[in-house]
Amino acid sequence: MSGIGLVLVDDHAVVRRGVQAYLTAVPGMRVLGEAADGQEAVELLARRAATGEPLPDVVLMDLQMPRVDGVAATAAITRAHPSVRVVVLTSFGEAERVHAALAAGAAGYVLKDADPAEVATAVRAAAAGEVHLDAAVARQLARRMAAPRAGLSALTDREREVLALVARGHSNREIADRLAISERTARTHVSNVLGKLQLASRTQAALLAIKEGLVPPPG
């Protein structure tokens, strides 16, 4: 099956139905399943993996849910299924929870009141290994983010270039094209940047680049 496979996780059925109705109508996207809380989501992916069914490319994850919340579920899913990208569904006031979800391995976030097209954009970005940031939330998260001990001084000039391109939302392929290097080399640079800065995701790297003034916040 082609296209981006999705699992929707939210404890409000009406939210799941609304998101599913829109994304199902978007060319190149298909909803593989849904869950009402984090525990159900973890179990759903475990069943699919055990039976050989395709795993989703992206999980859209609410944060505040009963039993297992979105942060814990994100950590469990990214640990068990590294290929699965988690995009957090958040309200504007949940910056602390979003920060925790990013630290747990979430690939990005989108506001619950975003228009459907932006949700689709965030899903596509995550599936492509890119970063999609809401401007207001990015500024809020960047202010809260603790700079790593070594800071940007730990990076080479090329790694700083790579970090800036990651922060602008470019995929490894786009970084490779811009810097005239192979995609494998670009991927290695991104991995080195995350390692040196002790960050879990490209989204965290983008937020740090904003905090440190390497790139401006998204418009």
Brief description of this entry?
This protein has 219 residues and is α/β, with parallel strands linked by helices. It is 51% helix and 13% strand.
Protein architecture, described:
The chain has 219 residues and is of the alpha/beta class. It is 51% helix and 13% strand. It has helices spanning 13-24, 38-51, 70-80, 95-103, 116-127, 135-144, 157-167, 172-179, 183-197, 202-211, and strands at residues 4-9, 29-35, 58-62, 85-90, 108-111. α2 (38-51) runs parallel beside α3 (70-80), α4 packs across α6 and α7 (157-167) packs across α10 (202-211).
Which strand order does the major sheet show? 2-1-3-4-5
Kindly report the average pLDDT value. 88
What is the string of helix and strand elements?
EHEHEHEHEHHHHHH
Major sheet: size, sense and barrel closure? 5 strands, parallel
- The CATH superfamily of the largest domain is identified as Response regulator
- Class derived from helix and strand content: alpha/beta
- Compute the CA-based radius of gyration: 17 Å
Which CATH top level class of the largest domain fits?
Alpha Beta
How far is it from the N-terminal to the C-terminal residue, by CA?
Answer: 36 Å
Q: What is the second-level CATH architecture of the largest domain?
A: 3-Layer(aba) Sandwich
In total, how many domains does the architecture comprise?
2
- The count of DSSP E runs of length 2 or more, i.e. the number of strands, is 5
Strand content: 5-15%
The backbone outline, from C-alpha atoms, is globular
Residues in helix, %:
40-55%
